Amino acid sequence: MINIPFNKPYLTGKELFYIEDAVKKGKISGNGYYTQLCQKYFESKYGFNKCLLTTSCTDALEMAAILIDIKEGDEVIMPSYTFVSTANAFVLRGAKIVFADSRLDHPGIDEDQLESLITSKTKAIVPVHYAGVACDMDKIMNLANQYGLYVIEDAAQAIDSFYTGKDGIKKALGSIGHLAAFSFHETKNIISGEGGMLAINDRKFAERAEIIWEKGTNRSAFFRGEVDKYGWVDIGSSFLPSEIIAAFLWAQLENLEDIQQVRIAHWENYHQKLQEWTSDNLIQLPVIPSYATNNGHMFYLICKNLKQRTTIIDNLKSEGILSVFHYISLHRSQFYKGKNFNTVLKQTDIFSDCLLRLPMYYELKVEDVIYKITEK
Ligand SMILES: *Cc1c(COP(=O)(O)O)cnc(C)c1O
């Protein structure tokens, strides 16, 4: 029987070579040669003003919450259909999370609902580019400018994906909001085991971001010779990864184009070959709006109901193929419900019950999955 996992971390072959090199360089704590190499790569390739590698996307989101000075009682708007870290980062600083529903055609935040959720306490909007597909950033940035809000992109899944706004300029996801958080967790396209990055697009945050990153000290400025001693200047934590992680990441970045090409080809193969089967079974294929690109992060189906999804998962499992559902909406989580909020989000619930993710990884034999799905 075939055995197809849902995800399999892909190694380019040079990870151990660069790790060995990092060790030989004699400096394996953070912010060394490989950290700076990776950060510069992202800054020049995607136009981020400044990048800081972090130990996870969760950490990058926590840094963002500190940077925008979230205080007790501030409100932060985000989709309910997301990973817990999107919310937790702000809850840790005392924010009240206001959940928005998903779009009809996509699990991403319903941009048209946002304005009705803004109050005098709203401090930020956190759009999540689900499956690496852009939210409509023009709508979100216009609202943010109008009401004086920050936008923090949860770009955990959105590496190498783009948004083309009304001005016709194609911008990398993560380069549009004031701040953006990426993940290099082993389930993402580009990996380092655990890992992440904060992109700082609003220059006013650049200096303080570095301080928060380095445990609240001005150590980075000290090593650049900008101050003659370093000390405690702000709150902060240990958000930076070691050089060993950055060296691993560098091996991935050298192969980014190849990884992306292969994943997108898998995605397109699924999309094309499942047309007939999905329409026969009243299942929806993913939709990429005209302003967005597909980065091959995830291939999902929207089943007609929970029962159908469970049947497909079970059938595939019996064939040795692991397909999985995704988020349990945060507004229905034990943590949030315990706070007695009566939030009703219809679309979010549909995606919680009906969205099914098919295996997606570099070495996947996508034909095998397609064959097993459609032969029934
Ligand atoms: C993976 C993911 C995260 C968390 O990333 P970590 O690097 O594991 O902390 C946050 N948000 C979204 C939308 C994700 O997909």
Automatic annotation (TrEMBL):
It comes from the Bacteria. Keywords: Aminotransferase, Pyridoxal phosphate, Transferase. One of its GO terms (molecular function) is dTDP-4-amino-4,6-dideoxygalactose transaminase activity. The keyword Cell cycle does not apply. Its EC number is 2.6.1.59. Signal peptide: none annotated. It is an enzyme of class 2 (transferase). Belongs to the DegT/DnrJ/EryC1 family. PANTHER family: DTDP-4-AMINO-4,6-DIDEOXYGALACTOSE TRANSAMINASE, TRANSAMINASE. NCBIfam families: ECA_wecE (TIGR02379), PRK11706.1 (NF008687). This is dTDP-4-amino-4,6-dideoxygalactose transaminase. It comes from Flavobacterium aureirubrum. The lineage of its organism: Bacteria, Pseudomonadati, Bacteroidota, Flavobacteriia, Flavobacteriales.
